[in-house]
Structure formats: C-alpha cells, structure tokens
Amino acid sequence: MEAAGISGSVSVDDQRSFIKIETLRGKNLTEIHSALREVCDMARGQQKIQSQQKNAKKQAESKKKHGHDQKAAAKAALVYTCAICRTQMPDPKTFKQHFESKHPKTPLPPELVDVEA
C-alpha cells in the first residue's frame, strides 16, 4: 500500500494486510492507525481528483454535443428588418403581415409585393 501505487481506493482486504504487516514490523496501534488513515485519505483525494476530471470531460462533451447558443441562433434567424420601425422578422410572410398591420398607410416594399401572407 505505497502512496504512489494507489489507483483510487483501498479495499478492506488491503487495510487488513497493511495492519498485519505493520504489526509484524513492530509498530503500535496508534502508528498503524495514523499511517493507514493517511493512505486512505490519499486514496480518497485521488478519487476526488479523478471524479472532477471525469466530470469536466463529461461537461465538455455535453457542451460540444449541444453545440450552439440558442440566443445566437435565434438572432441569426431574424433576417428581415422593417425599414420604418427596425423590428426584425424571421421570414417574408411574417414581415408582410407585420407591414400590413403596423404600417397600413405606407406602400409595401418591393421585396414583399409577391409574398403571400
């Protein structure tokens, strides 16, 4: 149970083996307990680091998967702009409906003459 060889967790069997070995080496219970606790804390610290890395990777993949910003996509979809009130619309049909309802006295722009509302 070297600190450098820890892969992320310390099993109960590993702990028992560590206690037996340290007892045979002549260490008392307080020394064994403090050493075992240190090793287990290192394992939990390693697990925490691995969990954070895994979560960061998962978040990055999720962000790539969803890919686009909804506000930016919605703004890009508004391609028609009313010359009078500067309101933006996504398609010519909506633009024509807007123009006829909001600006009835103004003649239609040439790009809206052929559009069916």
TrEMBL record:
Keyword Repressor in record: yes
Gene Ontology biological process terms, A to Z: regulation of translation
Domain C2H2-type positions: 80-102
Principal location class: cytoplasm
Biased composition (Basic and acidic residues): 94-103
GO molecular function, one term: zinc ion binding
Pfam families on file: SERF-like_N, zf-met
InterPro entries with a match to the protein in the record: MBS1/2-like, SERF-like_N, ZNF706/At2g23090_sf, Znf_C2H2_type
Region (Disordered): 44-71, 94-117
Alphabetically ordered keywords of this record: Cytoplasm, Metal-binding, Nucleus, Repressor, Translation regulation, Zinc, Zinc-finger
Residue ranges of every copy of the Small EDRK-rich factor-like N-terminal domain listed in the record: 42-78
Subcellular location: Cytoplasm; Nucleus
Protein name, per record: Zinc finger protein 706
Organism: Geotrypetes seraphini (Gaboon caecilian)
The organism's taxonomic lineage, starting at the top: Eukaryota, Metazoa, Chordata, Craniata, Vertebrata
